[in-house]
Amino acid sequence: MGLELLAEHGCFGGVQRFYSHPSAAIGMPMRFSVFLPRRALQGETCAAVVYLAGLTCTEETFMVKAGAQRVADALGLVLIAPDTSPRGAGIPGETERWDLGAGASFYVDATEAPWARHYRMHSYLAAELPGLLAAELPVDGNRLGIMGHSMGGHGALVLALRNPDRFKSVSAFAPVAAPSHCPWGQVAFTAYLGPDPEVWRRYDACELIAQAKAPPFPAGILVDQGLGDPFLATQLHPHLLEAACAAAGQPLELRRHRGYDHGYYFISTFVEDHLRRHATQLAAGR
Q1: Which of the residues 5, 34, 64, 237 has the least number of beta carbons within 10 Å of its own beta carbon?
Q2: Catalytic residue among 118, 262, 274, 278
């Protein structure tokens, strides 16, 4: 079974689509959205950027709020936004908290019951979804970038750092940069991965950068952070990512912006910069 088209909308000369498909990695249906630029509709196989959304979001959030399609069409980029977790897995309490369970997968492969059966988002995003995109849509699987926001910024960094052969460019908006050291990450990692912080290191961007034998992204990582973000001091810790990159020699452009908070007014302001950076890096890898 392949993709089921749920909806399609004309958008900036391209098309915005929403799909469902059965997922082997997750063990139940998953949804994602995709924007196809005019070049893709005209038969060109295009570079693509996967966007991972944050806590409580869905596959619709970025496509509706960020205003990214105009730039993506001009650049000839496909945009993909998967859902943030499985839905309806039948796990007791999976919808009781906004920071754990549905809408809050933290993009890991859970190892702890009852989450381990379906909460396998890392495998889904690292292997299954890219393969499906390349097989079913005009997406060049060799020119794939990834970016995300908040929990999704964490997911984008970790997926890229663990799979640099798959994702050739990476950026983030206000990422949970050191999840082992903040309440959001500690709650999620304990539930999904167990209580051992050594296990958490596999899904912590700062730890992965420190463990790398060579800088995995020599062309650089772009991170934007609003200084008016209410979660900056307690949950995000970009200074730890900055320090880890400096120690490892990983180029990082961390831009701090006065007057911007954690929401999509912030993301929509700087998303063009991110897409242009991805387009340049993905073109260089052709």
Answers
A1: 5
A2: 262
Integer distance in angstroms from the first to the last C-alpha of the chain?
31
CA distances from 84 to 47, 51, 59 (A): 22, 10, 7
User: Tell me, what amino acid is at 283?
Assistant: A
User: What's the pLDDT tens digit per position in 47-66?
Assistant: 999 999 999 999 999 999 99
Q: For 11-39, b where at least 16 C-beta lie within 10 A, e where not — what string?
A: bbebbbbbbebebebbeeebbbbbbbbeb
Inter-residue contact 126 to 163 (CB < 8 Å): yes
Catalytic residue (one of 229, 237, 274, 278): 229
Pairing mode of beta strands 46-52, 139-149: parallel
Backbone angles phi, psi at 128, to 5 degrees: -65, -50
pLDDT digits (tens, 9 = 90+) for 40-49: 999 999 999 9
At 193, which amino acid appears?
Answer: L
- Please identify which residue in the block is written with the tokens 């911007």: 260
Strand partners, 144: 48
**pLDDT, tens only, 126-151:** 999 999 999 999 999 999 999 999 99
Q: Does residue 229 carry a catalytic annotation?
A: yes
Contact present, 188 and 154 (Cβ < 8 Å) = no
- 254/239 Cα distance (integer angstroms): 9
Backbone angles phi, psi at 23, to 5 degrees: -110, 125
Angle at Cα 168 formed by Cα 117 and Cα 16, nearest 5°? 70
Q: Which of 33, 105, 150, 171 is catalytic?
A: 150
Query: Is 150 annotated as catalytic?
Result: yes
